[in-house]
Amino acid sequence: MTSRGTPSRFLQSVLQNGIGRYVCQLKRVSIIFSKNAQSSLGVREFIEEGVVDYAKKNPATVVYVSPQSCRIPKIVAEYLNGNVREEIVTSKTSPQISELLTKLTNQSGLDIIRIRKPFHTDNPSIQGQWHPFTNRPPSIGPIRPQKQDAE
Amino acid sequence: MVFLTLSCLIRSRGPDRYWKVQEVLKHARHFRGRKNRCYSLAVKAVRRAFVYATTARRLKKRYMRTLWITRIAAASREHGMKYPALMHNLTKTSVQLNRRVISDLAITEPRTFLSLAKLAQARQQEGFHAALGDGKEPSGVFSRIVLLQ
């Protein structure tokens, strides 16, 4: 896992989301589960109790519930920038699944890779970035190294 | 007729050699030469790369700190002070900025850094007067020591 060998990105938000209004970046949630398998027990409980409340609380997200005959229940989350995230929810309880869904809702769709710096500014310098003439008095003659007068 | 010898020579090996090899090669794709293609060379190179990455995590902190110190020293020399004097006097005035922040200020906010340098200079002069002077208060200051009347 070298830093050059693995992808990395800078901290950013999708189109400055949140500065004006906040748009939920989660486009679609598909819950794939089985009607009779043991591993989808928690998912079935969640669909009985929590799914409708979740869908009402997040009107911008479309929730698809698709019972299929599958061995492993999954939650597939698609984001507005096209990224698709699949979470496997075998043998998870209903509150765990709702926690997972809130986590997916709060994520933007950006890749989950190493973030180079935990901060980002578009305007890093307010007083003007330093350049070699910042602290020099204006001079007419040729540019020479400054004499350091010990104060 | 039964072919006994040929069928003994054919063995069915493991099914996922390809993926095990790709797991190693994916970390070697940006290397130079045959070690980005050939598994036996790549294994050694990838192990080396991981060892370097591990040790460098400890060393990066040292390098960054020396870089910050170099930058602060250069910036303070522009204002006529030296790095040890600046940092010591800043801690004496209880300015608890770390070296990273001070070096960023020196780069992006030169006037703020100038004010920090002047603060450190003033504290330095006060220290000199306290150590070398008469024990009298500086002229123009009403009282630094509250005298119980």
UniProtKB/TrEMBL annotation, chain A:
<dbReference type="GO" id="GO:0005743">
    <property type="term" value="C:mitochondrial inner membrane"/>
</dbReference>
<dbReference type="GO" id="GO:0003735">
    <property type="term" value="F:structural constituent of ribosome"/>
</dbReference>
<dbReference type="InterPro" id="IPR036249">
    <property type="entry name" value="Thioredoxin-like_sf"/>
</dbReference>
<dbReference type="InterPro" id="IPR039927">
    <property type="entry name" value="Ribosomal_mL43"/>
</dbReference>
<keyword id="KW-0496">Mitochondrion</keyword>
<keyword id="KW-0809">Transit peptide</keyword>
<keyword id="KW-0689">Ribosomal protein</keyword>
<dbReference type="GO" id="GO:0005762">
    <property type="term" value="C:mitochondrial large ribosomal subunit"/>
</dbReference>
<feature type="domain" description="Ribosomal protein/NADH dehydrogenase">
    <location>
        <begin position="35"/>
        <end position="108"/>
    </location>
</feature>
<dbReference type="GO" id="GO:0032543">
    <property type="term" value="P:mitochondrial translation"/>
</dbReference>
<comment type="similarity">
    <text>Belongs to the mitochondrion-specific ribosomal protein mL43 family.</text>
</comment>
<keyword id="KW-0687">Ribonucleoprotein</keyword>
<dbReference type="Pfam" id="PF05047">
    <property type="entry name" value="L51_S25_CI-B8"/>
</dbReference>
<feature type="region of interest" description="Disordered">
    <location>
        <begin position="121"/>
        <end position="151"/>
    </location>
</feature>
<protein>
    <recommendedName>
        <fullName>Large ribosomal subunit protein mL43</fullName>
    </recommendedName>
</protein>
<dbReference type="InterPro" id="IPR007741">
    <property type="entry name" value="Ribosomal_mL43/mS25/NADH_DH"/>
</dbReference>
Automatic annotation (TrEMBL), chain B:
<dbReference type="GO" id="GO:0005840">
    <property type="term" value="C:ribosome"/>
</dbReference>
<dbReference type="InterPro" id="IPR005813">
    <property type="entry name" value="Ribosomal_bL20"/>
</dbReference>
<comment type="similarity">
    <text>Belongs to the bacterial ribosomal protein bL20 family.</text>
</comment>
<keyword id="KW-0689">Ribosomal protein</keyword>
<dbReference type="GO" id="GO:0019843">
    <property type="term" value="F:rRNA binding"/>
</dbReference>
<dbReference type="InterPro" id="IPR035566">
    <property type="entry name" value="Ribosomal_protein_bL20_C"/>
</dbReference>
<dbReference type="Pfam" id="PF00453">
    <property type="entry name" value="Ribosomal_L20"/>
</dbReference>
<keyword id="KW-0687">Ribonucleoprotein</keyword>
<dbReference type="GO" id="GO:1990904">
    <property type="term" value="C:ribonucleoprotein complex"/>
</dbReference>
<protein>
    <recommendedName>
        <fullName>Large ribosomal subunit protein bL20m</fullName>
    </recommendedName>
</protein>
<dbReference type="GO" id="GO:0006412">
    <property type="term" value="P:translation"/>
</dbReference>
<dbReference type="GO" id="GO:0003735">
    <property type="term" value="F:structural constituent of ribosome"/>
</dbReference>
